Amino acid sequence: MPSCPIRDTEGRSAQQLHCWLVAVFLLLTVPAWGAGSHRNRSSHPAPADPGYVLALGIANRFLYAWQMGDLETGMVLLSDPVRHSQNPEKLERFFAAGSSRSYEIARGKGNRGRYSFPVVLVTSPGSQVRRRTSEIIVVNTGKDDWVVDKLP
């Protein structure tokens, strides 16, 4: 290594110090380079149907209406067959605002015009937290008009 006229207090040349710093930098950043090269790949391909986004939005709006105890909005988002097959009192109890509520929606599956989304309804009556696993089915009734066709 060629000598350098500039020396630190221990007699090392500036070039040696520079090489040492570069080596330390590379050793510290190599793990980060490898982490970026591995993408999380899902076994489920992204749906090709743009209606998937609309269906997911309706599922989210419906569950938000449930969370807020908004019976009116929830009823508007139900399909006619579901609305007519359900006992009105049962629907009111389903939407009745009670204790704290929340929900989780997982990746949907299906095809053009019909999607099912796994959901978890989370409630906390008192000091306990309850999780109920279910699914919500959303269907296209025409002209990008999506409705809930199965209650969670």
Model description:
The structure is a single chain. By secondary structure, the protein is an alpha+beta fold. The protein folds into 2 domains: 1-38, no CATH class; 51-150, Nuclear Transport Factor 2, Chain: A, CATH 3.10.450.50. The protein has helices at 14-37, 51-68, 71-76, 80-85, 88-95; strands at 100-105, 109-111, 114-124, 130-140, 146-150. Strand 3 (114-124) and strand 4 (130-140) form a beta hairpin.
Biggest β-sheet, characterized? Answer: 5 strands, antiparallel
Along the chain, the helix and strand elements come as HHHHHEEEEE
Q: Identify the CATH class of the largest domain.
A: Alpha Beta
The third-level CATH topology of the largest domain is: Nuclear Transport Factor 2, Chain: A
Strand content: 15-25%
Assembly type: single chain
Domain module tally: 2
Low-pLDDT parts are: none
Overall shape: it is: elongated
In short:
This protein has helices at residues 14-37, 51-68, 71-76, 80-85, 88-95; strands spanning 100-105, 109-111, 114-124, 130-140, 146-150. The protein is an alpha+beta fold and 152 residues long.
List its traits.
single chain, 152 residues, alpha+beta, Nuclear Transport Factor 2, Chain: A, five-stranded antiparallel β-sheet, 5 helices
Please specify the SSE layout and strand pairing.
Elements: H1 14-37, H2 51-68, H3 71-76, H4 80-85, H5 88-95, E1 100-105, E2 109-111, E3 114-124, E4 130-140, E5 146-150
Antiparallel strand pairs: 1-3, 2-3, 3-4, 4-5
